[in-house]
Design goal:
The structure is a homodimer. The first copy, chain A, is α/β, with parallel strands linked by helices and about 375 residues long. The first copy, chain A, folds into 2 domains: about 260 residues, Rossmann fold, CATH 3.40.50.1820; about 100 residues, Orthogonal Bundle (Rna Polymerase Sigma Factor, Chain: A), CATH 1.10.1740.110. Helices cover about 35% and strands about 15% of the residues of chain A. Chain A has 10 helices and 10 strands. In chain A, helix 1 crosses helix 2, helix 3 packs antiparallel against helix 4 and helix 4 crosses helix 6. Chain A is globular. The relative contact order of chain A is 0.13. The interface between A and B is large, with 45 and 45 residues.
């Protein structure tokens, strides 16, 4: 499989939804497979909240597979022999694209807290610029789960002539009060870390690792299902020899501590805040007085809408709201509720049913 | 209604379940109504995680009603004309009973982090000593919700001859992996506040208020239901004039910020950790190799087991597990699933259905 990782500069000023501007930006992009001569085999995959451009294959440093490695590759669900798959780190992120850790050439200091608010609409706009750069005329499919699914849906709304299919997986047309509340607790934890310095920790040569860790521990609980946690950990006590901290008793505590710690090493706190704010703010129907049907009227792409039965963060009702609006707006769509053991995170894991649904959606043209 | 608030000293050494000892302790106790001459009208109500002895009536300082004021009082569900209601702050708490903020007479310093681990069994044992002090021979009923419901259940197990009825409301025979995980995140947030000082913040003349605040914000989400939050807050933006913090956008964020801040003023961080650890550790079946039926065999009290339909923290499956074990153990019990708008917190709020169930359980003897 041909694979390519590249940081691509965009020099033109970018106007963001919040009204602020970026004087140019860079996107860290990874592609898999090759664009055919008809340029009609391109698939864009959009990462979720803490994902990045590395969707497929081994990561050189951490040796972690890409976030959708189970579904993309040679003879996999999205077969890279047939499709040219494009993946990128979104702006505001912390894996190579322009974000809060980027050093400003003028001041030689990082953006830090001055990085402007970004939105799903902004990401789709930058992905559109990337599309032009790659000389792709129309995406065969844009796909993603969770916040990635929101981008797929926004693509269908923002650029109806540039996308044939949108796979909107474990997503929502707008998140709930409870989701916002959970995001706000995570942000509060990060902001109140004494090393946060109002977002300018890099300038202070420090990092709010404690806050990031606890925020991720909370996030992790919401990505898994109760039944999955019960199966994996139950109420088993942690072996004292392998305890990561004296203060914990149970295996599940040890696991969360470990996962949180690991995350805090690699992720950026300002990005965490920006990404969750983008998730909170996603609400394409807002411009249509909350009418999702009106908002969907100009969509030309076919939609695949999928939810997972164990997902309590973005339960099936969210996906069904998209499907019902799609039916009323008379756009082509199908909805499937999939079995998934991993709660909200199920969208990251292969299953025959999931793979078949996505593959047949991608490969069958009407 | 006759009401009495008193701090009662117990001089004897108390051996705790963890193996450690307290050289005497004090209980902050509030009673409502009067003990009759037969001494058969006493009701013990046990507080949940962050509750205290003040169950009924106006609080003098904060002007807050007691936590079960909606259900206890003159002509209320638990009628104080008929019943002598006893409420106390549990040891390890921070509302007057011996706990981490208690100053040790020897050292003139607070217990702080040296306060020993307490358990539901320990609380029931101290409540038993209180019962003797008050010259009550048998409780007509022990009742509580959440962690309070666990105490009611433990009473039926620990002192089968001293309790006629146990009202086990919104409780669980043991909490799940997910519950433990949520508690651990809250503890992690508190422990990592730079003012926590390994639990000895009083000695350092400070308080981990930021940690307590964020931990409570998280707790608050789990006590409410998603539908209740959606109804109350939806996705409405907070009026900029009444924002508690510049960084928030939504009403739900403002509400949580406010609630968390308020809580952090009055609660103690070590108590937070102790109380959640007691909740994690509650597992009466453990001594019976996990067999709840065996554990229930010696119960003589009648049980009322109640859950609320909107409670996602302690869903009905937990209550049903108690009911099924009770049936198999051939003890008298009834289970009811109640409507409740407030998620897990529903046990605190009056409804006709809830009141009728509890009143008829208390007043009807077979």
């Amino acid at each position: 499989m041909k694979s390519n990782t590249k940081k691509i500069p965009f020099d033109k000023q970018l106007k963001l939804e919040c009204g602020k501007k970026l004087q140019g930006f860079e996107l860290m992009v990874e592609t898999y497979g090759e664009l055919n001569s008809n340029k009609d085999n391109a698939v864009l995959v959009c990462h979720a909240f803490s994902g990045n451009h590395h969707a497929v294959g081994e990561e050189k440093e951490a040796q972690k597979p890409g976030w959708w490695d189970q579904l993309i590759g040679l003879e996999k669900t999205i077969d890279t022999q047939k499709y040219f798959v494009v993946s990128l780190n979104n702006i505001g992120g912390c894996h190579g694209s322009t974000g809060p850790t980027t050093i400003l050439s003028k001041t030689k200091k990082p953006f830090g807290s001055s990085f402007p608010e970004v939105s799903v609409v902004d990401w789709v706009n930058t992905q559109y610029l990337l599309m032009n750069y790659l000389k792709i005329e129309c995406w065969e499919m844009v796909a993603g789960g969770s916040l990635g699914g929101m981008q797929a849906l926004q693509w269908a709304i923002s650029y109806p002539n540039k996308i044939k299919k949108a796979a909107v997986i474990a997503a929502s047309p707008r998140i709930s009060s409870q989701n916002i509340a959970l995001n706000e607790v995570a942000r509060e934890i990060i902001r109140k870390d004494e090393n946060f310095h109002d977002g300018n920790y890099m300038q202070n040569n420090t990092k709010p690792k404690k806050g990031l860790k606890a925020a991720r521990m909370l996030g992790h609980i919401t990505y898994l299902s109760e039944s999955n946690m019960s199966k994996r950990f139950g109420r088993r006590l942690q072996d004292p020899i392998t305890k990561v901290d004296e203060k914990i008793n149970y295996e599940v505590e040890n696991y969360l501590q470990y996962k949180g710690e690991q995350f805090s090493e690699t992720f950026d706190a300002n990005s965490y805040i920006l990404m969750t704010k983008a998730m909170d703010g996603f609400d394409p129907a807002k411009k249509f007085n909350g009418d999702l049907v009106k908002c969907f009227k100009k969509i030309k792409a076919r939609l695949l809408i999928a939810s997972f039965n164990s997902d309590w963060l973005f339960p099936k009702e969210y996906s069904m709201e998209i499907q019902i609006a799609a039916i009323k707006a008379e756009i082509k769509s199908s909805y499937i509720e999939l079995e998934g053991d991993y709660g909200h995170d199920s969208f990251l894991y292969y299953s025959d049913e999931y793979s078949t649904a996505l593959k047949s959606f991608l490969e069958n043209n009407e």
